[in-house]
Amino acid sequence: MIRQPAVAGQFYPSDPQRLKSLIASLLDKKETKKERAVACVLPHAGYVYSAKVAAAVLSSIDLPDTCVILGPNHTGFGTPAGIMTEGKWQMPFGTIDIDDKMAHSILKRSSYLQEDEVAHAYEHSIEVQLPLIRQIKGATFRFVPIILASDEKLMYKDIAHSIATAVQEAKKDVLIVASSDMTHYEPQKLAMEKDQKAIEAVLALDADGLEERIQRLQISMCGYIPAIVAIMAAKELGARTARLAAYQTSGDVSGDYSSVVGYAGIVIS
Prior knowledge:
The chain has 269 residues and is an alpha/beta fold. It has helices at residues 16-26, 47-58, 100-109, 118-121, 129-137, 153-170, 188-203, 207-216, 224-236, 250-254; strands at residues 2-3, 39-42, 66-72, 81-83, 88-91, 94-97, 114-115, 142-148, 174-179, 184-186, 242-249, 260-268.
């Protein structure tokens, strides 16, 4: 099965050369030692708004061949926890393979995940990460796509443990990516204040604290569930620290600060 792009030409260029040139312009050219990361949080808006933040993370870490990418469900299609275990995803420059062995290993351990192509068919939150990671890592890059829409706490723990144990069994480096934008459509000052509270919880690797702040402060972080699962899995794999690599809002690009979306790039190691 080849999954076709849902947002090529909208969120990122559909022309291969334009896409490659844009990504190249965003990457840090300095020769610095790459950090070994267990997980990260990347934004998923149109590249003009958020790819600079994602690139700040991806430029700074030693990318493994396999990424498990967790995204929220914006479309409402599919199951509450949907994984694809086989196939390829079409990108403007070619296809990217799903790591079927890793995907099947995660699926067989989970009581919540279901094989589900429908949840992924039109969802952009995983798709927009692929050109960036592929251009940096190259043709060896494989991934496991998981879309999460349920806020059931037992699901968080189940899927996080399924990912962590599958990675441990594989005995290879795997990067867990939580795809999420931050506050949506609030004035700049308020958006930054709310985002700071959510970011603090992620940096503390406090999954429960992140959920509590999201609910209490009404923070419209669309991918907080992927972030919670990523934090839990990363801690099980030995992660102890996190850092904020970059933060900006759509207002920093458009100049309109009356209603912005926040974007944070976080490295967990």
